[in-house]
Amino acid sequence: MMALKFKKLRRWIFIAAPFFLLLLWICRINWTFHLWTPKYQTFSSPKKCFNKHLVPPAQPATLVAVNGMKTLLVSAYLEHRSKVKKVRIIAIKPRKEKASYLCHLRCEKKLKITRADYKTHSDHFRFHYGTADIMCPLPSGCPTPSHVAVTSAHVNPEGTLDQDFLEVQNLKTEFQSFPFNFTVCFSTMFDYTNVLQLVQSLEMLQLLGVNRVVIYKTNCSLETQNVLDYYTHKGLVEEIPWSLSKYLNVSRGWLPNHGPGELHYFGQIPALNDCLYRYMYKTKYLALHDVDELILPQSVDSWLELLPLLEKKFGANKRYRFRSHVFPNDVLLPPPIFPNTLLQHSWGNVSGVNILSHLYREPLPSTAWIDFKIIVNPREVFSLTVHGALKSLKPFEWVTSDMARMYHTR
Ligand SMILES: *[C@@H]1O[C@H](CO)[C@@H](O)[C@H](O)[C@H]1NC(C)=O
Ligand SMILES: *[C@@H]1O[C@H](CO)[C@@H](O)[C@H](O)[C@H]1NC(C)=O
Ligand SMILES: *[C@@H]1O[C@H](CO)[C@@H](O)[C@H](O)[C@H]1NC(C)=O
Ligand SMILES: *[C@@H]1O[C@H](CO)[C@@H](O)[C@H](O)[C@H]1NC(C)=O
């Protein structure tokens, strides 16, 4: 009896073992995949074994609160373009909060303190909080500090250090060759469910020559998350977790009376500024527009062909502004005939706006001069706002509508 059971068991093990080994192997792949990509390292737990697309965890925008103050630090970057190099910290602070910051810079094994100055961005849409740049001059003998912490000179005059550090990024510059030709920054995705429009936009952007789309994500539907995971795995999307709600109440509106809260539209402006610096030396051009907007060339097929035309006409490194043309998503025109009607049929079940069925273009409104988005050389720009660059080295140019237009399906 025992022998029979043992035989059965042995046979069972014999059959099951390959499956078990296969399982182990799949998990190991996933595990090592994470180990081999230290740039994605975070404190989140490793992904589950059977995660569909083996998505590397995104690098979060690290938020650090300055003790005793209402200032929040988003990220830190070495600023190479000022007369004396500085560390620029992108921050969020109550606009009226008086502050006197000390920077603690980690230089090799030593810690050095310098006194910072700061500037609040002029675009705040009258919210209580605004975006600020805290600038830390580099101490002598410390050209590339690896980390920085900030304390308040008022709250903590001794400058004792009880703060978390931010990693200083952009220690090296790059002006010649970039991993990406075009990067698009989508700021503050929240409550997002418009799957079809997202997929159509991401596919369209790739056709235009875009290699990277950076998405600052607060939250979205499960279906949307699957799409984001797919494109992250593909190498197109970098998803940056973006939630300020632990620290302050963000508004859903772009003016205080459009949505209660202390900071403009989910913190869109600090997110855009982070994107500018994060990709400054990684991308040749940076485009700033939302997920429901597409800049479409009118005489050529892609941005790769469009940019040389713009540079020839207006000069290089300008801020190219594209006027917004609205395609209301409540007006349906007969959709174009696609050769593959099956494809069209299968879109019928995907939730969201099909941008290809909204072909009616409204006439340009009187506000056309503020409704635009831009493509820039990020190394020429210092700060960004919703519609463009607040501060940059070169002036802007309006791109004429025979060259390109921005299609806004809203
Ligand atoms: C960038 O554009 C050039 C052509 O201008 C192309 O050869 C290259 O492959 C593109 N790079 C990427 C990452 O797509
Ligand atoms: C998404 O985030 C916003 C802001 O934190 C919150 O108000 C909303 O309830 C969240 N939605 C979901 C579905 O979790
Ligand atoms: C956000 O607002 C609510 C209601 O006004 C308040 O109770 C809460 O403390 C606020 N949260 C933060 C983080 O300030
Ligand atoms: C769309 O959904 C309907 C009802 O659930 C289903 O019968 C149909 O097969 C689906 N079509 C496609 C292309 O998936």
UniProtKB/TrEMBL annotation:
A Pfam family it matches: Glyco_transf_92
Keyword Membrane (UniProt): yes
Gene Ontology molecular function: any one: glycosyltransferase activity
Record's bilayer topology term: Single-pass membrane protein
Primary location class: membrane
Keywords for this protein: Glycosyltransferase, Membrane, Transferase, Transmembrane, Transmembrane helix
First-tier enzyme category under EC: transferase
Signal keyword on record: no
UniProt GO cellular component terms: cytoplasm; membrane
Subcellular localization: Membrane
EC number: 2.4.1.-
InterPro entries for the chain: Glyco_transf_92 (IPR008166)
Ranges that cross the membrane: 12-31
Family that this chain belongs to: Belongs to the glycosyltransferase 92 family.
Protein name listed in UniProt: Glycosyltransferase family 92 protein
Organism: Oryzias sinensis
Lineage: Eukaryota, Metazoa, Chordata, Craniata, Vertebrata
